[in-house]
Amino acid sequence: MKSPVRYILPLLLLMTMACRKDLPQLNDPQNYVNANFNEVFDAFWTGMNNNYVFWDIDTVNWDQVYRTYKPLFAKLNVNDSNDVRKAYTYFKQMTSGLVDSHYNLSFADTWLADSGSISPAYLRKRSSPGFHAPISIFHFYDTLPKYYLDAGRRGFTNTPDKQYVAVAGTIQQNILYFFFNGFSLKTLFNTDTINGVKRVEQYFFDALANRTDLKGIIIDVRGNPGGDLADLNFLLGKMVTQPLHFGYTRSKLGNGRLDYSPWAPAYVAPQPGSKAVTIPIVMLADAWSVSMAEMTTMAVKALPNGHFVGERTWGANGPLTANKFYNGGQFSTSWLTSVYTSSLMFKYKDGNIYEGIGFSPDMTVPYNPAALKAGRDLQLEAALSLIH
């Protein structure tokens, strides 16, 4: 399975991080020759040792990984297809316990073309009690509007990487609802051409700005795998008139495993023309709400009128950006197409780190496939009851 989030996130959180170009460039993993499995292992192990940002909270003993797997890789022949597949198994074993829930390994070797990338968080969740598939996109696009919305708008936009779907409308005449399946709101809204998602966004923003009779707002990020961090200000910044402090970030400052920057506060910044929304704002999120979907839920929960209904989220909270900006985060080697890992560590304003754990709702409403099949959305109904 591919990593839950495949988008590069821009730098919007307030942070005091040093640029990578000002730091020593030692043992960059892409500089290893990788002509044999000794070098393949060393490139990966060193890259992780230097770039991985969660070593102070991760339970994996990275030095023990070296002692265990270095001799195993030394026995492998990089030109033997059976050994290449054995190396794939070793990579899966080495990374299985990593706390970073964005983490994803993809391989350049053609003998592994039929093997999926490795996502430790997905493999763990798939075998955990209560695991379920994401809610079908047709529930949000067809069923939910039919049974719950008074009026509104729905639309979709195709990009080279993804189909974006959005739905907005009112429920019981005075509760504003907004669903979207990926964070590219600002990009799609600022395009020169009208697109389906932009029309839905305009409907939502117009209602937010002009309706004076609204009793509550529901933002639905169930099944949302995340995306562009710019959307945090673009969406929530329209609902606050003062900077909203909701957490902290930190990065790596050097090649040492525990060389960290100080924690820096993270804010939602008010946008031009914003107004303070004081009616209840309810986030609907579930076990498939990842990354930006989680951070947006956390930010709403930091509001005095913010609530969260649904399930514990995925648990991938660390922002991502190209590692040219920081001395940590994603990297590649000549044998690994991508080691996809968080650039920054995020800590919520309550002082807790929810990486690998997920963010818990105020009101837990489990996934109910029988109700969904019958056209009932019990999580949405719980959000409505909370507003009332």
TrEMBL record:
Signal peptide feature range: 1-20
CDD domains: Peptidase_S41_TRI
UniProt similarity note: Belongs to the peptidase S41B family.
Record keywords, A-Z: Cytoplasm, Hydrolase, Protease, Serine protease, Signal
GO biological process: proteolysis
Protein name: Tail specific protease domain-containing protein
Kinase found in the keyword field: no
Subcellular location: Cytoplasm
Chief location category: cytoplasm
Cellular compartments per GO CC: cytoplasm
Record-level Gene Ontology MF annotations: serine-type peptidase activity
InterPro entries (UniProt xref): ClpP/crotonase-like_dom_sf, Tail-specific_protease, Tricorn_C1, Tricorn_protease
Domain annotation Tail specific protease: ranges: 151-366
Domain of life: Bacteria
Pfam families (alphabetical): Peptidase_S41, Tricorn_C1
